[in-house]
Design a protein that fits this description.
Elements (H helix, E strand, L loop, with lengths): L1 H41 L5 H8 L3 H4 L3 H25 L8 H28 L9 H26 L9 H29 L2
Helix pairs in contact: 2-7, 4-5, 4-7, 5-6, 6-7
Pfam families: PMEI
GO molecular function: pectinesterase inhibitor activity
GO biological process, one term: shade avoidance
Length: about 200
């Protein structure tokens, strides 16, 4: 009887171990597939390496869903835009800032505020759309998402334009430019991924 129980226990342990290994393998394969989906989608963007760097860690949540990919891209860039706005706002107290630089910084803060607002609207609108959805309402909402995201990109470019000319060259311009260019590139990528989602309908 004891030997029979021991054998049953061994078989049970072997079964559980085999099932656990199979499950782990499936999850690994699924995760790999999700990551490949993000990478392939990012290849359609202007800055593919940056796109993949920003979104690959969310692959398991995205799960080969174009809408979820676009939504995640918008969520990431909205957070980054908020951070950039705060950073630029802090630059109003930059040591040795000139009157012209101060005005450019204030204008940039306003533009980045508009960026955050437009990206937030885009994200909210995109969340209303479902993967298989279509029809007039779908395209109207998607048009809004594209318009607001494009407008956000324009705001970011306008911010950078405010620091044009040699008179504005220097550390302040370089610091602000580094933050805004990254946001603009991510916004461009998000717009491309929104278009990928649209192409599936």
């Amino acid at each position: 009887m004891a030997k029979s129980l021991d054998l049953s226990l061994i078989l049970f342990v072997l079964y559980v171990s085999t099932a656990a290994v199979a499950m782990a393998t499936n999850l690994e394969e699924e995760s790999s597939g999700d990551t490949e989906f993000v990478k392939a989608s990012c290849e359609t963007t202007t800055y593919p390496d940056q796109c993949f760097q920003s979104l690959s860690s969310y692959a398991s949540e995205i799960k080969k869903r174009p809408r979820q990919l676009a939504e995640t891209a918008l969520a990431v860039i909205t957070a980054r835009a908020k951070s950039a706005k705060t950073y630029v706002s802090d630059m109003t107290d930059y040591k040795g800032i000139t009157k012209r630089q101060h005005e450019a910084v204030l204008d940039c803060v306003e533009e980045m505020g508009d960026t955050v607002d437009r990206l937030s609207k885009s994200l909210k609108e995109l969340k209303h759309l479902e993967e298989g959805e279509s029809g007039e309402d779908f395209w109207f909402c998607l048009s809004n998402v594209r318009t607001w995201t494009s407008a956000a990109l324009t705001d970011e470019t306008t911010c950078l334009d405010g620091f044009g000319g040699k008179a504005m060259d220097g550390e302040l311009k370089s610091l602000i430019r580094a933050h805004i260019v990254r946001v603009a590139q991510d916004t461009s990528n998000a717009l491309a991924l929104i278009n990928v989602f649209a192409s599936k309908h």
